[in-house]
């Protein structure tokens, strides 16, 4: 699929209920991303601090910002560095790559581009919909799974 075409679409990556107080690591198009709740809603950033390339998903969320566990650098939902412990003066313009993120009907959608529409099934708009989520686990072999 071409880069331009993929960017026009939203992709469901998580359930809203799975994005709580802790950061959540996901893979999106082969890239590691971190999802967290910022002051503006759900945020999706590349899962690496530009300082030492540590996974931001192993850090914590503080005041709606993701904090790197290595030196405590903080990034807002837009990917801007907002705090560096011990730093005096104007903040440098460090950034983490940001992905467009939105929540709809209990699902988190992200895109690597700027989609023109919201992620919504317009054919279902205005209709009564019953959503149900079922989770289960099982133990089986690959042969059992292929057979069923």
Quick take:
The protein is mainly β.
Please describe the structure with a list of short key phrases separated by commas or semicolons.
148 residues; mainly beta; Rieske Iron-sulfur Protein; 2 helices; disordered N terminus
Report on this model:
The protein is mostly beta strands and 148 residues long. It has one domain (3-118): Rieske [2Fe-2S] iron-sulphur domain (Rieske Iron-sulfur Protein, 3-layer Sandwich), CATH 2.102.10.10. The chain contains 2 helices and 10 strands; from the N terminus they run αββββββββββα. The chain has helices at 3-7, 142-147; strands at 11-15, 24-28, 31-38, 41-46, 60-62, 65-67, 74-75, 81-83, 98-104, 107-111. The strands form 2 sheets. Strands 1-10-9-4-3-2 form a 6-stranded antiparallel β-sheet, with no helix packed on it. It has a 4-stranded antiparallel β-sheet with strand order 5-6-7-8, with no helix packed on it.
Structural class: mainly beta
CATH T-level topology = Rieske Iron-sulfur Protein
Order of helices and strands: HEEEEEEEEEEH
State the name of the first-level CATH class: Mainly Beta
Number of helices: 2
CATH architecture: 3-layer Sandwich
Strand order of the largest sheet: 1-10-9-4-3-2
Q: Mind telling me the C-alpha Rg?
A: 18 Å
- The CATH superfamily is identified as Rieske [2Fe-2S] iron-sulphur domain
- Sheet with most strands: 6 strands, antiparallel
Would you report the number of β strands? 10
Strand content: 25-35%
Portion in helices: under 10%
Total individual domains: 1
**In whole angstroms, how far apart are the ends?**
31 Å
**Could you say which overall geometry the principal axes of the C-alpha atoms support?**
globular
